[in-house]
User: What shape does this take?
Amino acid sequence: MKYKKLLSAFLATAMTVATVLPGAGTIQAEAAEAPQPIKTFSFENDLDGSTAKTQANSGAYSGTITYDTGKSGQAVKLGDYGLQMNTGKIGNAYTISLWVNPTQNLVDNGSLIFMGAPKGASEYWSSVAGDGGGGNIKLWSNNGSDFAWKAAFTGVALAKDEWSLVTYTQSGNDAVLYINGEAKGSGGAAISLNQDNSDLYLGVTNWDADGLFNGLVDEVQVYNEALTADQVYALYDTTAPEDIFAEKGFTVNAELSVYTGRSAELDVVLPVGVAASDAQISYSSSDASVATVAIGTVTGVKAGTATITTTVKVGDTTKNAETQVTVSDLDETEIPVVAKYEMNSGSGAAVADTSGNGFDATIVNPNGTSYEKDGDRSVLKINSADSYVTFPTSIYEKLTNKEQFTIQAKYARTTLNNAWLFCIGSKAQSTGTNYLFYAPFFGGNVPRAGIKDSSESLYNFANKSFSADTYYTVTMVFDNGTISIYVDGALVGSPLVTTKTMATIVANGTQNGVLGFIGKSCWSADPNYTGSVDEFTIYDAALTEDQVQLSDADVLQKKLEALDILGDKNESLDAVVYDLNLVKSADGFDIKWSSDNEDVITADGKVLNSDEDTQVTLTATASYGLLTAEAKYTVTVKALDLTLLKAVVAEAKEMQADVFEADSYQALQNALEGIDERVAAVKSQQEAADIEQEIRTAVSKLVYKEDYKDPWTKIEAAAPKEDAEYKPGESEALFTIPEGLENCVTVEYSSDNEEVATYADGKVTAVKAGTAILTTTVTAKYDGWKMEYGTYVTVKGEEPSVTSITVKTAPEKTEYKIGEELDLTGIVIEAAYEDGTKKEIDIKDCTVTGFDNTKAGTQKVTVTYEDQTVTFEVTVSTKAVSDIFDDVDSEDWFNDYVQNVYDKKIMTGLTPTHFGPTDTLARAQFALMLYRMEGEPAVTTTTAAFPDAGESWYKDAVIWANQNKIITGYTDSGLFGPADPITREQMATIMYRYANYKKWDVTKSADLSTFPDASSVSAYAKDAMAWAVANEIIQGNNGRLDPQGSAVRAQASTIITRFVTTYPVFE
Assistant: This one.
C-alpha cells in the first residue's frame, strides 16, 4: 500500500479510524470490520442461484451442468455454457473475486468476467477478456462515448491448467485487476453494474465471435465496494501482516528536495498484505534547524541537508529507513532546461532552440504555419492539418536521468477533435505503440494523456475540462514511470503510477533521429493539432510542484487579469448596470476583492447605481503556492434607469378584473400594493430588475376565465361542416359564434370563388354552378391562437351529357420494359359535351384498361369516361440482353440477333446471366428453338421419337419435330444425337422442312457451284442449302459454305433472325 500522509490514507480508504498520539509523532489505527460479500457462489453441485447461458447469451442452457474438483470442494466446469450470476444492479463500486483453472487459453475477446447490459439492450459493458488468444487477458469496455471499445490495459498473463485467484475491483471509472493478490493491470473503464438491467456474467458475452471460457470456476465472491489492495491480498494469502512485514519490510523516499518555508510529504510504501491499520509509524529529523518532520510532512527551515528517519512497527517487528533531505532557498533555485522553443520567429522549417543546446526543431509543411503575435504572446500558429513539428532524440540523450524529465507547453487549441498537442514517440502507425502523449481534447472538453508500451495507461483528469481558443500552460512531469500533470501550475487529477520506462518508449517508439512531435499523434489515423503554441520546453528534471509554479510564474497574474467579472447581464466594463461576478476562487486559487467606492460597488460585486455614471476601481489579489498576483479592473457603473420598470407597472395596472379569475387577479393587486413607493425607493438596477420580474411573474400567473382561456371546446362543437352542396340561389348559415364567446374570439369569413358562392357573417349564398372553398378563421383573444375551418362547397346546375372523349395530350411515357407499371403522367383527356363545350377530365376519374406488362409488343390502352372510350398505343419490350447476360455486350455484332430471339422467346440463356454466344449449338437445342417458334404445341404421344431422346427437357420438341417430318434422325444408327453439335447443312435442312411443313414458299433456290466447297454438301441437304443461301438465311463463311461446320449460339441467333424475317413465323 502506498500513501503520503498515513492519516490521509486512512481517511481516504474509509477502512480505519485514525488517532494521532500527541507528542509521539506516530499514527496508530484500529482495524475496521472486514468487508462482507453480497453474494457467494461455492458451486457444491449447485449453481447457487446463477443461470447457465448458451453462446452469446442467446438463451438458457438446457444441457447437463458439470462439476469437478475445485479449489475448495466442488467447482463448476464451463465450456459448453457460461453463467449469468443474477447479481443485478450493484452501483458505482464493486469487486468480483473468483478462483479459476483454465483448461484452454481464452480466445481473443472471449470473456472471463463480463459486466453490463443484456444482449439486445443499449450497449454498455466491461469485460476481463482474452488478449490475442495466447494466454494473456485484458480489460476493455464500451459505453458509447468516452470508453468506446477502449482497452484499459492488456497483456496480463493468466496461467492455464492451474488455479489462480482473479480479483477485479472498480470504483467509478478506476479499475484494477489482481492475479493471486497482486495488481497486474489498472486503468479507466466504463461503469457497468449501475443500471437497472445490469448483471454479472462469467465465461460468456453477448457476441458469438467471442467464444466461451473453458475451465473450472470456484468460490466466486461479489462485493458492493471496491476492496483495497490489502483486502484483495487477504483473499489470496492469510499470512499474518507481521510475518509479511518481517520478510518484506517497507520503503520510503531515498531522497527528498524541499524549499525553505515549504513542505513535502514522504511516500511510505507497506508491502501488499500489510494494511495501514497494522502499522505504527514515527519520524525523526537529524537536524531540526534544517528540516522538521511531523506525521510524514517534511518542512524546510533553512538551506542545508538533514536525514529523516522513518520507523515502522508491525506487531513486535520494527524496521527503519532513511531519507536524505535537501533544503534550498527559492531565490537560488535554477530549473535546468534541455530544450526550449519560444516560437518568436523562425527561418523556413527550423524552430530555434533558445536553451543554448542547439536542439532545433523542424516544421513539417511550414507553409501551413505562421509566426504571429497574439496579444503579448509570440506564437507559432499551426493552421494546416498537414503541419506539425518534430524535435530530435539528442534531447533525450542530453537528459541527466533518462527517467526523470518534464515537458511544458503553452497553447490554445482551435479544434474540437482528438489531436495530440505533443508526444514522445515518432513512429506513426495505424495502431500506435510506445509513446507518451498529451491531447488537449478527447470528448467533453476533457483532455487525454498517458503512456503506452505494449499496453496503455491513461491519466485520470477527474473530468476537468478546458475550453478552446484559451491559453493554458500544461506541464507533464515524468518521474520513473509516474506521470503528474499540472495545468496553469495546479495539479490536475491524481498522478498516474506505472512501471513503464522511457528507455523502452524511446528504444521502440522513435526513428530517424526524431524523439517526438508537437501537433501530431503516433496513431496515423488521428487528426493533427491546429491552434497556437506559445512555448514548448523540456526540463532536465522531474519538477516538483513548486518548480512547476516557478517555471511559469506569471500564469497566476495572467489568469487574474483574464477573469470575466461582467456576469450574465452586463455587456462591458464601460457600461456596468447589474451586479458583477466577483468570484472568490478560480482554478484552485482563492481571490480577495476590494473596491475604491463601496457606495457604488461593494467587495462582493453588488452594484448600487447612482443618479449619474460613476467610475470605480476594483482590485483582485490572489495567491497559489509560491505565486502571488494583483489585478485592477476599472469599471463604469451606469446611472439608474427606471423607465422599463415603470412601463411594466403601468401595464400591470391596466389589467381588467372581469377577464381573470378573482383569486389570480387579487394576487396581482397584492403585488402592486405600495408599488409606487417601492419604485421611488429603488437604489440599484438589479433591485429594479427584481421588482420588474416580481410584477411580470404576478402577471404571468393571472388565470383567465375558462371561456376566455379556452373557447375551443364550444367552437369545435359549433364548427361549420366540411362539405356542402347547393343549387344556385340557395343560402345557409354555416357558422354562428356560440353564446358567451362573443368577446372571447374574433371571426373572419372568406370564399376563394365568389362567382360560385359568397360567404359573409357565417352565411353562405350559392351563385352559380361550380365549386368554392369557404374558410372560417377563428382567433382567440387570449393568446392569438388561430383555427381555420374549411368547407368545400359544390353548386350544381344541370350538366350536359358527354358525347366523346379524346386524348388531348399523350402520356410522357409510351415505351415500357417487361414488368414496368403503366405511367399516365402528362396525359390529358378532353371530354366533349352535347352543348358543344369541352373540358379536360382528370385521368383519376377515368377507367384505364388494356395494358399488360407481362407481354412484349404494341398494346392499345383504353380510357373510358361516362361510357365514352378512346385508345392510345404503348410499346412493351423485354429488357436489353446486354443488361441480362454478362457475356453479351451492346457493341457485339450479334447483340441485335440475340435480342430478337430472346424477345421472341426462341432462345434463352444457358443460365439466368449467361447466354453462351460462343458455345456450340447442340441438335437438341435447335429442335427446341423450332418447337418454341411453333408455340410449343402439345404432342399426342409420350413415346420418345428416338432411343436417345427419352425423358429430357427436349423430349416433346423432338417428338413434335419427328411427327411432322422436320427431324428424322441419323439413318445409319436410328439415333437422334441430341448433344451432337448441329452442322450448318443440318440447320438448313431442318428449317427447310419446317418451312415446307408450314406450307411457305420454298421455291427460291441458289446456284451453289459458286462456292468452292459446294461438292461437300450432303445429297440430302443440297436443296435445303440452295434454298437457305437464296433467301440469305445462311451465308458463306469466309467464302465457303462449310456445310459440315458446326454453329455457335450467336450464329444460330443470326440464322433464326433471318428466318423469321423471311417468313411470317409470328403473324
Remarks:
- Residues 135 and 159 are 7 Å apart (CA to CA).
- The first helix runs from residue 6 to 13.
- The chain is about 15% helix and 35% strand.
